[in-house]
Design a protein that fits this description.
The complex is a heterodimer of chains A (about 120) and B (about 110). By secondary structure, chain A is mainly β. Chain A is about 0% helix and about 45% strand. Chain A has no helices and 11 strands. Chain A has strands at about 5, 10-15, 20-25, 30-35, 45-50, 55, 65-70, 75-80, 85-95, 105-110, 110-115. In chain A, strands 2, 4, 5, 6, 9, 10 and 11 form a 7-stranded mixed β-sheet that branches. A 4-stranded antiparallel β-sheet of chain A has the order 1-3-8-7, with no helix packed on it. In chain A, a hairpin with a 6-residue loop joins β4 (about 30-35) and β5. Chain B is mainly β. Helices cover about 0% and strands about 55% of the residues of chain B. In chain B, the strands form 2 sheets. In chain B, strands 2, 4, 5, 9, 10 and 11 form a 6-stranded mixed β-sheet that branches. The chains are: A mainly beta (about 120), B mainly beta (about 110). The interface between A and B is medium-sized, with 26 and 23 residues.
Chain lengths: ~120, ~110
């Protein structure tokens, strides 16, 4: 069982370039998330998708867009990368928000390390 | 004040030692609490949930004090494999978007 798979694992961009981080989960989870992790700070939520067909902003959405392509896939797009977006990005999934099956556990992908020069 | 605060460490302890991590949270409406473990350059993974009555899982004990808005994690008989960063996570509701992560406390268990 692969769990949550993210691609690419590493990427170097120049300022102004665009790219898309891909995420797929095979646990039949309804809810998916994108976080960024910076040194000395906790993971911060960029966007989330409570269920297929819905997306909402998290704490730090500026400069990002997302697409919930289907139940399995949730992508994160940087339209015009900036050095401040240098970070490690984690995709996560969970049982449906508010459902009895949701124990609160988030399942994370291995992370995507992005450097913007 | 940050929503979830932790001592960043690092905590350097010898094998076999007992070590305790503390975490404070500012949102009194928080409803569920967790400790996650993150190995170097890896993704976070759930270590244990924290219940009001306190709970234990082998060498790990978690405590919650709602009145003081304080969570703790105690690790007994530390192993080399316990070396990691421990993340305190607080959820203000049943919705995943309300998860707030602390910055983490780094533990190094030394031989």
């Amino acid at each position: 069982n692969a769990g949550v798979t993210q691609t690419p694992k590493f990427q170097v961009l120049k300022t102004g370039q665009s790219m898309t981080l891909q995420c797929a989960q095979d646990m039949n989870h309804n809810s998916m998330y994108w976080y960024r992790q910076d040194p000395g700070m906790g993971l911060r939520l960029i966007y989330y998708s409570a269920s297929e067909g819905t997306t909402d902003k998290g704490e730090v959405p500026n400069g990002y867009n997302v697409s919930r392509l289907n139940k399995r896939e949730f992508s994160l797009r940087l339209e015009s990368a900036a050095p401040s977006q240098t970070s490690v990005y984690f995709c996560a999934s969970s049982e449906a928000m508010g459902s009895a099956a949701n124990t609160g556990e988030l399942f994370f992908g291995e992370g995507s390390r992005l450097t913007v020069l | 004040r940050k929503e979830v605060e932790q001592d960043p460490g690092p905590f350097n302890v010898p094998e076999g030692a007992t070590v305790a991590f503390n975490c404070t949270y500012s949102n009194s409406a928080s409803q569920s609490f967790f400790w996650y473990r993150q190995d170097c350059r890896k993704e976070p993974k759930l270590l244990m949930s924290v219940y009001s009555s306190g709970n234990e899982d082998g060498r790990f004990t978690a405590q919650l004090n709602r009145a003081s808005q304080y969570i703790s994690l105690l690790i007994r008989d530390s192993k080399l494999s316990d070396s990691a960063t421990y993340l305190c996570v607080v959820n203000a509701g049943n919705y995943g978007q309300n998860f707030v992560f602390g910055p983490g406390t780094r533990l190094s268990v030394l031989p």
